[in-house]
Design brief:
Elements: E1 8-11, E2 15-19, E3 22-24, E4 30-32, E5 34-38, E6 41-46, E7 55-58, E8 63-66, E9 68-73, H1 86-95, E10 98-103, H2 114-127, E11 132-138, H3 151-156, E12 161-163, H4 172-185, E13 189-191, H5 196-202, H6 212-236, E14 240-242, H7 248-259, E15 264-268, H8 279-283, H9 296-308, E16 313-314, H10 323-326, H11 343-355, H12 359-373, E17 388-398, E18 417-427, E19 430-433
Parallel strand pairs: 2-7, 3-8, 9-10, 10-11, 11-12, 12-13, 13-14, 14-15, 15-16
Antiparallel strand pairs: 1-19, 2-5, 3-4, 5-6, 8-17, 17-18, 18-19
Helix pairs in contact: 4-6, 5-6, 6-7, 7-9
The structure holds zinc ion.
Zinc ion binds next to loops.
Length: about 450
């Protein structure tokens, strides 16, 4: 099998040797080491391992890191399995080097009752793909509800966060109750910050042809909601997590809130620090997402926020849709792009390649900080530990169809040049490999 063979996802052979790679430790310094995996665990990690009875993967020129943590994923199950399922979403995660993910509650029905949460957790456990699936429960029992879900019951069912993603809370009092409720049950509130009246009046527009006034209105739709949620976090003591931050003024507010000691974190998605709204001109609805792609100065501000640590986390906002849905034209097509498979490559290219962000900080944004927020642990790379790792290959790559293992291909990044490619993902007994695995 050559490097051009489409990626695949299978069980690990009994013994697997990853040889010739460089393992990135907590300090971000890559050290040459081979890794021998036996029965889903790291059996040995040493400079040169001879393991005659093992299948093996050539990891020369590759970086080996703990499997990444993506806290913003839409798995679409239940109710929208034509877009994605727990299983295909987990495949996409494997293809991107992601070993743990948080799925968002805007399914059909919403993940608003313990039964719904248990359904997703059980589906994930049955798959045996090794992806650790966590759930953000819905703060509302259904869209447009005037009262909150039973947040304590959702916490007991195992939710790691509560969220309004996909149905942003518009009413200030209800938002206050939601944040106070999250504080009470001890879970972070994952906030989709959008004033829908403002965003509706701005409409879908690109930065090349949008009038300054409409672009500003579109950005204000996020900024006023960020401002409100920070105030409510301050009032209630809730842990606020701002999903997909995208506007320069939002980053300023976040920086100030942190300086003021308010409990707030934020994530940015690769598209928001890689593309501007000009991408809509070329890509049409493939570049339509929520929040929308922004102005060049927003891209610079989000990048700067990630570089200086104001923005804690990188997440994909993996949002699969079918080709038919995306073909409905710019106004009617649903917002969102797939992102699990491309997150690491785009983040590395934009931050490490172009701005010299260290690998330690890269891993903090993509594993350490998101894991800490939801009470998960970052896998350790040492003998005896469960084998949960990603192998990435730096180099000159172009994102193509072969990268994608989920159901969605709705991305503006096909044909986009990057300097990293997900190469191999091992999640205990599950293996994804974009390269050949030599049998022993
Ligand atoms: Zn959202």
């Amino acid at each position: 099998m050559s490097d051009a063979t489409p990626p695949r996802s299978t069980g690990t052979p009994g013994r697997l040797l990853l040889w010739g790679g460089r393992v990135v430790g907590a300090d971000g310094e890559p050290e040459p080491a081979d890794i021998l995996i036996e029965d889903g665990h790291i059996a040995a990690m040493d400079e040169e391992i001879e393991a005659l009875e093992s299948a093996s993967v050539d990891c020369r020129r590759c970086l080996i890191v703990p499997a990444l943590v993506d806290i913003h994923v839409h798995l679409r199950e239940p109710g929208q399995t034509h877009k994605e399922t727990v299983e295909t979403g987990c495949r996409a995660a494997q293809a991107g080097g992601v070993g743990a993910l948080v799925c968002m509650p805007n399914t059909d029905p919403l993940l608003a009752r313990p039964d719904d949460v248990e359904f997703v957790l059980e589906r994930a456990a049955q798959l045996g793909r090794g992806v650790h699936v966590m759930v953000a429960g819905s703060v509302l029992p259904c869209r447009g509800a005037a009262e909150l879900s039973d947040l304590a019951a959702l916490a007991r069912a195992g939710c790691v966060a509560l969220s309004d993603d996909g149905f942003s809370l518009q009413d200030r009092e209800l938002a206050r109750e939601a944040l106070a409720g999250c504080a009470e049950v001890g879970l972070p509130f994952f906030a989709h910050c959008e004033d829908e009246a403002l965003s509706a009046s701005a409409g879908v527009l690109d930065t090349a042809t949008g009038t300054e006034e409409r672009l500003t209105t579109s950005c204000r739709a996020e900024v006023v909601a960020v401002e409100r949620n920070i105030e409510l976090a301050d009032d209630t003591g809730a842990r606020l997590h701002i999903l997909h931050i995208s506007v320069a003024e939002s980053v300023d507010l976040l920086r100030q809130a942190k300086a003021d000691g308010i409990r707030v974190t934020a994530e940015a998605c690769p598209h928001h620090f890689t593309l501007t709204g000009e991408a809509l001109l070329e890509q049409g609805s493939l570049a339509k997402m929520s929040p929308p792609l922004r102005r060049p100065r927003d891209v610079r501000a989000v990048t700067q926020g990630l570089l200086d640590g104001t923005i804690d986390i990188i997440a994909s906002d993996h949002a699969p849709h079918t080709a038919d849905e995306k073909a409905r034209g710019l106004e009617a097509a649903p917002a969102g792009i797939v992102g699990l498979e491309t997150m690491a490559a785009l983040a590395y290219t934009a931050l490490c390649e172009r701005h010299d962000l260290g690998l330690d900080e890269f891993l903090r944004r993509l594993a350490g900080a998101p894991a800490a927020l939801v009470g998960a642990t970052v896998p350790s790379l040492e003998a005896g530990a469960p084998a949960r790792l990603a192998v990435f290959r730096p180099g000159e790559w172009t994102i193509d169809e072969d990268w994608f293992l989920g159901k969605g291909r709705n991305t503006p990044f096909i044909g986009y040049p990057v300097t990293l490619r997900p190469w191999v993902t091992v999640l205990e007994h599950a293996l994804f490999s974009a390269t050949s695995v030599s049998p022993h």
